[in-house]
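Worked example (supplementary).
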Amino acid sequence: MSERRSFLKKFGLSIILSPHLLSCEGVSGKGSKSNGAQRKIVLSTWRHKRSNALAFNALENGVSPLDAIETGIRDVESDPSDSSVGLGGRPDRSGEVTLDACIMDHNSNAGAVSYLKQISHPISVARKVLEDSPHTLLSGEGALRFALEKGFHKSDLLTEESKNAWSNWKQNAVYQPEINIENHDTIGMLCIDASGIMAGGCSTSGLAYKMEGRVGDSPIPGAGLYVDGNVGGAVATGLGEKVIKNCSTFYIVELIRQGYTPQKACEMAIQRVIKRESKTDFQVGFLAVDKFGDIGAFSIHPGFIYTYTNNEENTEHEANAYFDKM
Ligand code: SD4
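After joint prediction of all chains, the assembly is encoded as:
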């Protein structure tokens, strides 16, 4: 049996749905640090065990963290049953699937694409922007032209199922992102290799039935994703407008830099989002990891699932939520 298959077999069935306490951190606040024994990890938003396993396995095979992130995220992008990423992603209200993605290395160098149409692997185009262009973020027509020049091919990203869902939506045409429903598959992924090198990425078709031209937080460094491998990394999911407003992942990494644990930093970032709103009928969730491999996860409402993978487990957990505590 190949290494990859034996890994998937070994970890493929484990699901834990409870507020987690990972070995390395049980205390919210400043100063709790693991000994780094579990450093090699992959962490992602929502239920992505298969993609995490692929990314982890890639790390085991010695590829770079950027390669591992790209490998894991490409798997989600090509899954037609995932309704908020790549192929099968829900369209905007005009019926177009438009994609946002970002990838970031240990030293905060980022490549990103936004409002990209007809390309099934925006994370790979983002990687090309990072490594093969003088820019950080390419958008729309220009991003598409760049992708085609780099050898990507156009394809139809609208599946029968997403076309039908769009037709149903048009009957009432009410735009109301639903907590943990509209956005439950978007992938944000962070990883650290055995030598402590970190990378992150995210990829999404954004919120279903968004206005034409809308770009969310995912392709914006410091909003949907931020990595500073000397400190930590963070990813966001949920209503992107609120994440952009608060520069949330940058804020989380800066809190970790100040000495807060990733868990406390995620909680403080959620509190910052909530404090500035009169209504909290939307979901935002954050994941973070510090350079020691300690992690944090927190959301506004219950129901934010994340996936954690190391050499002993590949498990899903429900993050603690602000409204759990009220
Ligand atoms: C957006 N934050 O476009 C993305 C959607 C998302 O989980 O992450 N959903 O606003």
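Two points are worth noting when inspecting this output. Residues 252 and 265 are 5 Å apart (CA to CA). DSSP finds ten helices and 13 strands in the chain.
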